[in-house]
Give the backbone structure.
Amino acid sequence: MSLEIVAVSAGLWQPSKTTALARALLEAVAEELDALRTCVELGPIAHELGSTLRRGEAPPRVEEALHRVERADLLIVASPVFRGSYTGHFKHFFDLIDTQALLGKPVVVAATGGGTKHCLVVEHQLRPLFAFFQALTLPTAVYASDSDFENYAIHSPSLQDRIASVAVEARRFFPVSIPIAPLERSHHNVPKNSHFHSR
């Protein structure tokens, strides 16, 4: 069965730098793992999401997005930075996620902002949120500022290198199993009257 990688973009506008970053990470990781890929964009469901107060009241599109995140083998999350933190829609979406659904799940955290002054959001806001869920955030977090994009496409070599590093890290969570042939006991390797003693 193929792995499924899901990215969540909290970018509310089209085009969106946050969505561009989320999709770039998604493609890199899914390519490395030869996995299925899905990008959940919160912008198109923002109004429905905002009016969902309980999980049981979630409209079909919101419920489908929540379910995709919960069943993902690896999760990529990206939010623009507003007022020093992730967006309200991003937090509200994860408030509706089952508290046990992300237990032990690898998560890539990423954010976008106007400049570098917001870069610690990934460490001080996003990592603690997923620590609550007992998810496993990858060592490398990704932050991108406006200068890393040109016409909403990533053009920064250093950002592209960081994305590539994340893909390599993701591979460590899903090592390839190599079958090992069973050991063969050769009768002529063991002396005929030998005795084995445990100590």
Remarks:
- Helices lie at 17-33, 46-50, 60-71, 88-95, 121-132, 157-171.
- The domain at 4-174 is CATH 3.40.50.360 (Rossmann fold).
- Strands lie at 4-9, 36-41, 74-80, 106-113, 136-137, 142-145, 149-150, 153-154.
